[in-house]
Amino acid sequence: MLVNRALMRGFIITDYFARFPEGIKQLGQWLAEGKLKYAESVVEGFENTPSAFIGLFTGENLGKQLVKVS
After folding, report:
1. Residue 28 has pLDDT above 70, yes or no
2. What is the band of 5 on the pLDDT scale with cuts at 50, 70, 90?
3. Looking at per-residue confidence, does 3 or 25 come out higher?
4. pLDDT of 12 strictly over 80
5. What whole-number distance in Å separates Cα of residue 24 and Cα of residue 36?
6. Is 66 left (phi over 0), alpha (psi -120 to 50) or beta?
7. Smallest Cα–Cα separation from 16: which of 6, 4, 26, 5?
8. What is the per-residue DSSP string for 50-64?
9. Which residues, other chains included, contact 67 with Cβ-Cβ below 8 Å and sequence gap of 6+?
Protein backbone atom coordinates (compact mmCIF):
# COMPACT_ATOMS: atom_id res chain seq x y z
CA MET A 1 0.00 0.00 0.00
CA LEU A 2 2.82 2.40 0.73
CA VAL A 3 4.54 1.90 -2.61
CA ASN A 4 1.39 2.57 -4.63
CA ARG A 5 -0.02 5.18 -2.23
CA ALA A 6 -3.22 3.16 -2.00
CA LEU A 7 -5.90 4.37 0.35
CA MET A 8 -7.84 2.03 2.59
CA ARG A 9 -10.95 3.38 4.24
CA GLY A 10 -13.62 1.56 6.16
CA PHE A 11 -17.15 2.65 6.86
CA ILE A 12 -19.70 2.34 9.60
CA ILE A 13 -23.21 1.30 8.68
CA THR A 14 -24.65 4.39 10.35
CA ASP A 15 -22.85 6.49 7.73
CA TYR A 16 -25.61 5.33 5.37
CA PHE A 17 -28.56 5.37 7.78
CA ALA A 18 -30.55 7.70 5.51
CA ARG A 19 -30.37 5.10 2.72
CA PHE A 20 -31.50 2.18 4.90
CA PRO A 21 -35.03 1.96 3.37
CA GLU A 22 -33.50 1.93 -0.11
CA GLY A 23 -31.14 -0.86 0.91
CA ILE A 24 -33.91 -2.98 2.43
CA LYS A 25 -35.98 -2.62 -0.73
CA GLN A 26 -33.08 -3.57 -3.01
CA LEU A 27 -31.96 -6.50 -0.87
CA GLY A 28 -35.55 -7.78 -0.69
CA GLN A 29 -35.79 -7.65 -4.48
CA TRP A 30 -32.49 -9.50 -4.92
CA LEU A 31 -33.57 -12.13 -2.40
CA ALA A 32 -36.89 -12.66 -4.21
CA GLU A 33 -35.04 -12.96 -7.53
CA GLY A 34 -32.60 -15.51 -6.11
CA LYS A 35 -29.63 -13.21 -6.68
CA LEU A 36 -28.48 -13.33 -3.05
CA LYS A 37 -26.67 -16.47 -2.02
CA TYR A 38 -25.97 -17.33 1.58
CA ALA A 39 -24.64 -20.23 3.55
CA GLU A 40 -25.38 -21.31 7.07
CA SER A 41 -24.44 -24.18 9.32
CA VAL A 42 -27.17 -25.44 11.61
CA VAL A 43 -26.45 -27.51 14.71
CA GLU A 44 -29.45 -29.17 16.38
CA GLY A 45 -29.86 -29.11 20.14
CA PHE A 46 -28.88 -26.68 22.85
CA GLU A 47 -26.48 -29.25 24.27
CA ASN A 48 -24.38 -28.88 21.10
CA THR A 49 -23.88 -25.13 21.57
CA PRO A 50 -20.32 -25.47 22.93
CA SER A 51 -19.14 -27.55 19.97
CA ALA A 52 -20.86 -25.16 17.53
CA PHE A 53 -19.07 -22.24 19.18
CA ILE A 54 -15.69 -23.96 19.00
CA GLY A 55 -16.40 -24.79 15.36
CA LEU A 56 -16.45 -21.06 14.62
CA PHE A 57 -12.73 -20.93 15.38
CA THR A 58 -11.74 -24.18 13.70
CA GLY A 59 -13.43 -23.55 10.36
CA GLU A 60 -16.13 -26.19 10.76
CA ASN A 61 -18.99 -23.84 9.93
CA LEU A 62 -19.93 -22.44 6.56
CA GLY A 63 -21.37 -18.94 6.67
CA LYS A 64 -23.60 -18.17 9.62
CA GLN A 65 -23.51 -20.61 12.55
CA LEU A 66 -26.92 -21.34 14.06
CA VAL A 67 -27.99 -23.55 16.94
CA LYS A 68 -31.54 -24.82 16.59
CA VAL A 69 -33.33 -25.40 19.88
CA SER A 70 -36.86 -26.63 20.42
Report:
1. yes
2. confident
3. 25
4. yes
5. 13
6. beta
7. 26
8. HHHHHHHHHT---SE
9. 42, 43, 44, 45, 46, 48, 49, 52
